[in-house]
Design brief:
Layout lengths: L1 E2 L12 H14 L4 E5 L9 E5 H15 L6 E4 L6 H13 L3 E3 L16 E6 L1 H10 L2 H8 L3 E4 L6 H6 L7 E7 L4 E7 L9 E3 L4 E4 L4 E5 L8 E9 L7 E7 L4 E3 L2 E3 L1 H14 L6 E8 L3 E9 L5 H15 L7 E5 L12 H9 L3
Parallel strand pairs: 4-5, 4-6, 6-7, 7-8, 18-19
Antiparallel strand pairs: 1-5, 2-3, 8-9, 9-10, 10-14, 11-12, 12-13, 13-14, 15-16, 17-18
Helix pairs in contact: 1-3, 2-3, 7-8
Amino acid sequence: MFLPPDPARWPAPATAYEAEAIRFCEAWLSGQDIFVLHTSGSTGTPKPISLTRTQMQASAHLTGQTFGLQAGDHALVCLNVRYIAGVMMLVRGLELGLPMTILEPSGNPLNGLHPAIPFAFTALVPLQLQTILEQQDETQLAILNSMKAILVGGAATGPALEQALQVITAPVFATYGMTETVSHIAIRQLNGPQATDYFTALTGVEIGTDDRDCLHITAAASNFERVQTNDVVEFLTDPPYRTFRIMGRADSIINSGGVKIQPEKVERIIQEQLATHGLNPRLFVAGIPDERLGQQLVAVVEGIPVPDDVWQAVQQAIRGQLGPYHVPKQIICADRFAETPTGKIDRKQTVAQVTGQA
């Protein structure tokens, strides 16, 4: 569905999803001041959050300023408009005067799109970008390369994907944010000479940490209220802080035999090692109940079995970099991961499915 900036030219919705997008746009244009959205549920039970029009406007205009978006730039909206990432694509279009092509979320939103459409801006989840790149379609690559900015959020980008996306000449940015901060408050470029491994807070965003080294955020998009996260970060400079690396989540730490393990560190090494063998499955590390250890560390991969010799090389790499207590005791293959409505991995549900421990 194509929505030009002039609502009088909007087409009638052809599907229930298009109707839902139109309803939000009409509510926005009517001047509605409070919008209730739900968190994605990737780290807990989804919960409703009320956001004000002022907060959402502040976020939209900051995005426009950050990426040089101008009225008339064409936006591709292919994230779920029931959640913050998709909703904010609509708000950006309405606030910044961006014509929008709205597509119901799919694995590859570029399928069927014509390269003559001059898209300037889009936001994707990592799995969508991975699917696009795996097709090695020159037409789809041309669509991406025409853009001013491509945002990738909702989940971490693995090393294999970051290597694969170097074929894209348009700037690709990983984003950091959440519903409470009205989408992203920090970015890092993933490709080209300006690629980096750390996030930089956007203009006007203040950041710091609590006594757990977990990030807190204050910004116009948060109504200037402090939002406390459970993300453990490492700052790269002295105060005032602007740049940071995400080390993992405080609430995801696994206690195995009294040793506290940050799973994200282990996951990164597994991804890097599998990529050297041409394997790029989605994966995560989890703790499952164990009588002796309390929690046994395991790796869960999606869709493909990992050969024994490759897994032994992975274990050796983890042992060498992090020590023996960080080596998963086993690797479990799941046919397909359970997902949240926004396409994030539902780790708890996936573990329950593969272990039979609901």
